[in-house]
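S.,

As promised, the zinc ion run. Input:
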Amino acid sequence: MGGMRKNTLVPVLLLLGALSLTAACSPVRGTPPAGSADTGASPSAPSDVVRTVDPTKIQGLDIVNDSGNDPSCPWTTSYPAVPGAESMTAVMKGEVERRLHAYVDNGCGAGNELDLNIGFDFLVASGDVVGVRLTTQDPGAAGDGTETRTYWYDGEDAQRREALDLIAEASRPDFVATVRAQLEGRAGIDPATLGNAFSGPQARRAVLDDMSFTREGALRIDFDRSTVGVPPGGRYQVILPGATVAPWLSGFGERVQEQAVSPSGRLDLGAPAPTATPSAAAAPTPEASAPGADTTDCSKVRCIALTFDDGPAVPETATLLEYLAEYEARATFFVVGQNAAAHPEALRAEAAAGHEIGNHSWNHPDLTQLTAAEVASQLQRTSAAIKAATGEEPTLFRPPYGAIDDAVRSATDLSPVLWDVDPEDWRYRDSARVAQTVIAQAGPNEVILLHDIHPTSVAAVPEILRTLSAQGYHFVTVSHLRATL
Ligand code: ZN
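Predicted complex:
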């Protein structure tokens, strides 16, 4: 939650003194996804914790990342592409594009330089079912800017599903009546808004678009701000015990509930196994770029620190590692935690080849818009994912968008790294242009900003390495550059 939004919420909380915290508590900006939040539920209340899904168990998983790094219009989007669930992926893609266009059309956060961020969590991905929640932080949207929606896929029928499809059609009237009864009378619930929200089948599908099962099998329903209550009431949540919802579940809902409680550990959507992608797991680890300790003395020779942000990406990162190895070049990878968790083998390949791995936050928010605790959480989760993959904690971080202030600096022990040369490779998806800009602007001991999620950026690297090597440059990690200057 940004400072602005927090400030608007505080007086409201005072105003609604009796407001139940469970009902009002918004997933704040930068909050770790549900699966990791093992605290917060009071002992008497039913837990709202959804079991964490290990993304490395999803064969052929691709995470579709994109971002715009223009400081006046910063945005980041990511969603998963699960092989076999293409129709679900297509709907997520459409939603991401719709929200991005709306953000840009509305002046990119109404000129406040607030970033749009769309991230995801897996709710379930085993057996023959997949569930994903997209969380959108949109400063230009109505309400507090946090909106969530869940997306579902049923491998048995090879169909994408919506949240309400977890409930059998014949049971929906009973289900809806029970959910309404749970909301009625809560502080901030507005009878007219509530009535409209459930007024017909279409309205119900729209308002009941975020449903998930907790690890105990209870059904958790989350409502965006303003959809059932007055805007200051924030987000609302209803949790129905497993025994209550059991008679209402569809066949699909029963299978989702089963996997949410006891995941089979394996996802089989009935699609042909994905053809072997050149992921680092399957591909041979590239030769170490320069085996052993790097003895380059940057006080005597010209050094360059190439840095690659936002990955790892499959297959782009593995391709990049081959290019770097050809020139015995070392680089620094500022990885995004949600990608690192999905592709730890790519981090292992980076580390094994002598490159440095730095922290680029969990899901790429503007850290200056977060509380100190949220900044710490963004960075700690990512450092933990890096350590889990490579055995080593990073010492460097790069703030998304380069956005940093004293509050961010003091929220972490990691050392911030910005850059000297930015070819804006996220804007110009043109390898020749990216290579020429880097070559023209690079100087001794400078840090170059690139993104290994873009194939065009990776394709620019051989030309950069060839030309700058010929000019006598040595390619070192950021920590090596700093240590030998
Ligand atoms: Zn970035």
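The longest helix spans residues 86-105. The pocket of zinc ion is lined by residues 67, 309-310, 360, 364, 400 (CB under 6 Å).

- D.
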